[in-house]
Amino acid sequence: MRLFKEYFNTYYEPSELDTQLYDASNKFDNVYHYEYYVENYSDSKPAEVLHPEILTSNLQEVLDLHRSPHDYLLLLSVVKNINDINQLKRLDCWLGYFLQNWENKPSQFNLLITTLLNQYCINSYIHSQTTLEFEISKNWLSDYFKSGIDFHEECVANYLLTMSLIIGSNPGIINKSSQETFREYQNKRLTSLNIADFFNSIFTKFPLPTFLINQLLHFDFNELQLIIELLYGKNLRNCNNLPLPISKKESQIIRIQIKDEFIIETNRIKSYLVLAKLISAADNYNRVAIHHLTLSATFSKNLSVFIKDLSYWKQVYKFAVQINRELTEEVRVEEFYEFFEKKKFELNQSFNFKGRTIKSIMREIVGTREKVMLNKEMKYKWKRKYKTKTFTDENNIKYIFKELRTGKQLYNEGLVMKHCVFTYYSYLCNLGTHSIVSMSRKEKGITKKLITIALSENKLMEARGKSNRVANDKERLILIKWFKKMNIDHKKAWW
Q1: Which of 115, 329, 399, 484 could covalently link to 157 via disulfide, CB atoms 3.0 to 4.6 Å apart?
Q2: Cα separation, 405 vs 382, whole angstroms
Q3: Among candidate residues 382, 327, 319, the one with its CA nearest the CA of residue 353
Q4: Is 161 exposed, middle or buried, given 0-12, 13-18 or 19+ CB atoms closer than 10 A?
Q5: How far apart (Å, rounded) are the C-alpha atoms in residues 262 and 271?
Q6: Integer distance in angstroms from the first to the last C-alpha of the chain?
Q7: Could you report the per-residue pLDDT of 246-302, keeping only the tens digit for each?
Q8: Pick from 393, 415, 391: which is nearest to 404 by CA?
Q9: Beta strand pairing status for 189-190 and 150-151?
Q10: 164: which residues sit within 8 A by CB, 6+ positions away?
Q11: What is the DSSP string of 2-20?
């Protein structure tokens, strides 16, 4: 800070600066942060306020205390987008509470202030808080900080604020005295690893599944209401905010079987209920199969359509869980789902599951993949490396060497010669590492293919005739002439 003050006094005239900007500069760690502040806020009013009707200076004090320029911009953007005076008053009360306690644990309250601003952006639950609920939330947080429990992660700050909001609106939800729980964690630090246990110890005799607690920060208003019903001990099937009806078996799957978090961006609880229905139908919980299903386009982007076709997807999932144990072809799980999505929505084709096995389905998927690859590779084109050459023997028979330059030509070569030149070399030729030359014989106006020659970097890789036969003596003499003419190394190849 001494170096910063020297820089300040050298390059800035205090008389030219706003007094509050000068005071705020004392809070910064380095010149960069101060200059950033001056650049973004020097034209602002002497004191930032939430609203003309709100006479406190809590906002300005928070600006002065926080050290990250990003937080300044975040806070002001939040304030700018809030039009409801009651919400702004509640935000001001929260800021005032945090400021009163800031000096005791500045690092923790900085995290809580950042969390508060983030929640005001995305969490409608905090907007509906009444004055009484705010006082209850504030008192619970005060008891927490008096206990001396430490934390240093923003996600923990998020949980603590959310828990205080839940307790504020539902004070009777606490399972046992908060002080008793605080004593259990007194010599521990709350982290992302133990916050779920802390949550359950505060609220309920019947612990919520960890995956639900870990999703807590992303739930919308209705989803949080459902969580609160569960915390009161209500059966999941009887919750008023349940987005889908579920069976007793599906309810048990939610509480007991699902132990993993999946990448679900919206409709989180509804999505997990749908997963429970799939697991129940297949009587199998397969983490890999579920993970790839949640990433599929229909499930992640259009859940209502997925639910509409739920009977179809139950059948798909029943086969998906068998992939790992009955793998007969190399089929990825995501490819498995893409196959059925395309059948259903792009091609509008029905799929008859009756009498099908996982092996027969995988053979069809592989066949479909090969057709797609065939169409793609048939369109390949590459540059010519070898000019067409013709040799004539003593019987006036012409031997023509012509490079094949498209996927379609390779495919036709393979059909005529009954070998796999297209399968093995279309990709390599398109890549530019290999070339294929076709040797033909022209006699009495009739042309007949004889040998297919594979080359790489002017070296012979192989030369094969129909059905992969080797060249006969006559053909070898002609081939050697062409090799010498084109300066091709053929001595190390087996041909």
Answers
A1: 115
A2: 6
A3: 319
A4: buried
A5: 10
A6: 79
A7: 999 999 999 888 988 898 988 999 999 999 999 999 999 999 899 999 999 999 999
A8: 415
A9: parallel
A10: 137, 138, 140, 141
A11: HHHHHHHHHH--GGGS-HH
